[in-house]
Automatic annotation (TrEMBL):
Alphabetical UniProt keywords: Signal
Keyword Signal annotated: yes
Name of the protein in question: Chitin-binding type-4 domain-containing protein
Signal peptide residues on this chain, from the entry's feature table: 1-16
Length: 265
């Protein structure tokens, strides 16, 4: 019986993957602007895994090209400087990992960090979402208004990389000073900072585990980001935190290029 239980657990972990649920990402089955495109059934799977085009294009699986089209319409409207939340769903949460969220204001050329979650992302004990998998964060107060790209990147302790992106409408901040003092979630974390950091002074989001020579911890630790930005939410301490290794000197290290999603949109 124990052997069966262990095998079941291993199979569950092997098939455990998550994706961004809200805001609805490009080409997701829950995106109201999908139109006549086929939803990508592999958004919850890591890059270089599964489907006819195993290697997906960085960034955003190639779907950055949907910006400015009806299928790329914003799926959320957020005010700069406000506290918002994103949530996740999937077929298994891999018992945690580390995540970053951030934005691109130049159509995917660069992605600046909004918040880094070091450990317990997704929440390891909260199921497969979207219920129970809400993550609060604060929009940088000096984010330019307009349609921007929101990005979520996950490292799951198996040296796997997943990235989903969504178009979001950013409206002007209520406080025009653009001063940023950290989200409530980060302020509640002992290691978070509360210094004022403008959007363009933030580090780029880390890209690793995608054939670019940068590797995150495997199995026994969760990722500690080398440049997490000012807003850091610490996990629950179940696993130690370790920095990535290899060719990670460029924090915005580009992933290997490859094919776009299921239907080429």
């Amino acid at each position: 019986m124990r052997t069966i239980s262990v095998l079941s657990t291993l199979l569950a972990v092997a098939n455990a993957h998550m994706q961004l649920h809200f805001p609805a990402p490009f080409n997701s089955s829950n995106n109201p602007y999908l139109g006549d495109c086929n939803a990508d059934p592999y958004l919850q799977y890591p890059y270089d895994c599964c489907g006819p085009n195993n290697r997906r294009t960085y960034p955003c699986r190639g779907y950055i090209s949907l910006l400015g089209t009806p299928q790329g319409a914003p799926t959320a409207t957020w005010q700069a400087g406000s506290t918002q939340k994103y949530n996740l769903r999937g077929i298994g949460n891999h018992y945690g990992g580390s995540c970053q969220v951030g934005f691109s204001v130049d159509k995917g050329e660069t992605f600046q960090v909004a918040t880094s979650y070091e450990g317990n992302c997704p929440y390891r004990n909260n199921g497969d979402g979207p219920d129970g998998q809400d993550f609060p964060f604060t929009i940088p107060a000096d984010m330019p208004a307009g349609v921007q790209v929101f990005a979520w990147i996950w490292y799951n302790r198996e040296q796997e990389f997943n990235m989903n992106c969504a178009a979001v409408e950013i409206t002007a901040a209520a406080d025009p000073s653009g001063v940023y003092h950290g989200s409530p979630a980060a302020q509640a974390s002992a290691s978070s900072s509360s210094v004022a950091v403008t959007y363009h002074d933030r580090p780029e989001m880390l890209v690793a585990d995608d054939g670019n020579g940068c590797l995150t911890p495997h199995t026994t630790a969760e990722l500690k980001y080398p440049q997490p930005g000012p807003d850091v939410v610490m996990g629950d301490g179940v696993y130690p935190l370790e920095l990535p290794n290899g060719t990670c000197d460029a924090v915005g290290q580009q992933a290997s290029q490859g094919e776009t999603g299921e239907d080429g949109h």
